[in-house]
Design brief:
Length: 498
């Protein structure tokens, strides 16, 4: 059985713990490799490598740091097919979806090619008599990233690209479900000219995460994953004196007003609800048509589309969606569908028990559609993270608005309408981080920042955009007066108003 280890000091190294986690091919259900789970000592080894490499990297001028990312972007494009296939083999999503995953990360790498401009400080001439004052942004030192299984390309790059561009060294702890792509990205960073030790990839589970959270040399931690772990990582990192940004789960609603283009809305729901088997933190899992007539017309359009979804392995280039990530994920999703039925929702399309010919042991769940879902049901309250869409009927706009407002999560939300007034009112009043107006998955591009509100995010700076430059740097402010500007000798008191 193939063993997947770590990437420390610019080299692949085998794991030493003797503990492993299975890496599946979700389409066949087979174990295709075993990934090593790191010990505390292995995390320490990565940190020591990072410590040794970081000062010289931070002293490298920003245009040279940018050039590594220019070359890295070229390599990503050259290797796109290989990288997307590697990702799909472990994650299960279609190759096109995997390309999207990598491209969204690549765009963050393009953004940080502007690091000479992005990391510039501020200067005030004459802040006092012959006094100049300036602020500079210095790297935190060593940063760490802990990432989920669902975007093994994009999310590691959200983190390591700005962190490294700012002059930090980095420890990446990817998901143990699909570790091969992050390791390959680290190899390509070396090929792009990154000095060994600046980017280290350590595979592992809670032991590795806890070692990162308590390591005295790691200054900042970025986390993306489920809400309970995000909350834990945020609290533990903060207690250990680290800055932390931690992003959690979601339950994204799409409100459909009576004046919306319903063909557009139905198509948008298909991509946003079922694409990538619903395993996206920005997936739409709740549709809220306003008014009975809107709901009935929407359902008429949706049902045949959900029934016609083509489900296949990643190698089927016509598939709309692939399997979910593990057998446990499949069982969990099907259990939630059972609960929806038991709690009185109307199951319009049932994806339970779906079997694909030739892939009978794969972790497939068929596209599922519920109508008449109410806020007290588990399928409404819980993030399902599968190809399951719930329709909650609302009588009017205020009732529709109140649903996402009251929900625990606040990652993304969308409104479909032709009414600019309503859309503007919605965007202004809603307590959610990312809003789409006739856009179902409003993921901000690399030069804006990504982050939710409420239980979808802990910490105060978002991923990518200028927020990421702030997160991965510390501000230092210098007040300077040169001898010729000092007229009256030394001063021993704080300046006072006279
Ligand atoms: P997860 O929380 O199970 O795992 C995320 C990371 O935490 C992994 O690296 C994992 O090894 C580690 N981890 C797991 N259990 C841990 C523990 N007890 N202690 C310490 N570390 C632990 O999440 P997942 O299943 O990989 O990813 C899916 C989740 O991620 C969904 O909830 C999804 O909404 C969320 N997500 C959020 C965003 C966002 O930006 N808000 C983006 C993508 C995914």
């Amino acid at each position: 059985m193939r063993e997947i280890g770590h990437f420390i000091g610019g080299k692949h190294v085998a794991g030493t713990s003797g503990r492993f986690s299975d890496v599946f091919n979700p389409a066949t259900g087979e174990v295709q490799a075993k990934v090593a789970l790191a010990t505390v000592e292995e995390i320490r080894a990565a940190v020591e490598n990072a410590k040794a490499a970081q000062p010289a990297w931070a002293a490298t001028n920003p245009q040279r740091r940018a050039r590594v990312f220019f070359r890295f972007v070229t390599l990503l494009n050259q290797h796109m097919d290989e990288l997307a296939t590697l990702l799909s083999q472990e994650h299960g999503k279609t190759v096109d979806d995997s390309k999207g995953d990598i491209i969204r990360g690549l765009e963050v790498c393009e953004f940080v090619c502007g690091i000479p401009h992005l990391q510039k400080g501020e200067f005030t001439e004459g802040a006092g008599p012959a006094i100049d004052m300036y602020s500079i942004r210095q790297p935190v030192g060593i940063g760490a990233g802990i990432t989920p299984f669902n975007f093994p390309g994009m999310i590691p790059m959200w983190m390591f690209a700005p962190a490294i561009a700012c002059g930090n060294a980095f420890i990446l702890k990817p998901s143990e479900r699909d570790p091969s792509l992050p390791l390959r990205l680290a190899e390509l960073m070396i090929e792009a000219g990154l000095p060994a030790g600046v980017l280290n990839v350590i595979n592992g589970d809670k032991t590795a995460v806890d070692a990162i959270l308590t390591d005295p040399d790691i200054g900042a931690v970025s986390f993306v994953g489920s809400t309970p772990i995000a909350r834990y990582v945020y609290g533990t990192a903060a207690m250990n004196g680290k800055r932390a940004q931690c992003f959690g789960g979601a339950k994204n609603h799409m409100i459909i007003l009576p004046d919306a283009d319903l063909d557009q809305a139905a198509n948008a729901l298909m991509g946003a609800g079922y694409g990538s088997a619903g395993e996206r933190c920005m997936a739409v899992s709740v549709a809220v048509p306003v008014g009975e007539e809107t709901a009935n017309r929407l359902l008429e359009k949706l049902v045949p589309k959900v029934e016609a979804l083509r489900i296949g392995p990643y190698s089927d280039d016509k598939a709309d969606l692939g399997p979910v990530v593990t057998k446990e994920a499949k069982a969990r999703i099907e259990g939630l569908i059972d609960s929806g039925v038991a709690q009185g929702a109307k199951l319009v399309v049932d994806g339970r028990g779906f079997k694909l010919q030739g892939y009978e042991d794969g972790f497939f769940v068929g596209g599922t559609l519920f109508d008449d879902v109410t806020p007290d049901m588990d399928i409404y309250k819980t993030e399902i993270f599968g190809p399951v869409l719930s329709v909650v009927r609302a009588a009017n706009y205020e009732e529709a608005l109140s649903l996402p407002m009251k929900h625990e999560y606040g990652n993304g939300v969308a409104i479909f309408t032709r009414d600019g007034d309503a859309a503007r009112d919605f965007a202004s009043r809603i307590n959610i981080g990312m809003i789409g107006v006739n856009v179902p998955i409003p993921v901000p591009l690399a030069y804006h920042s990504f982050g939710g509100w409420k239980a979808s995010s802990f910490g105060d700076l978002n991923q990518h955009g200028t927020d990421s430059i702030k997160f991965w740097t510390r501000t230092k402010t210098i007040t300077a007066r040169w001898p010729s500007g000092i007229k009256d000798g030394a001063e021993f008191v704080m300046p006072v108003m006279k």
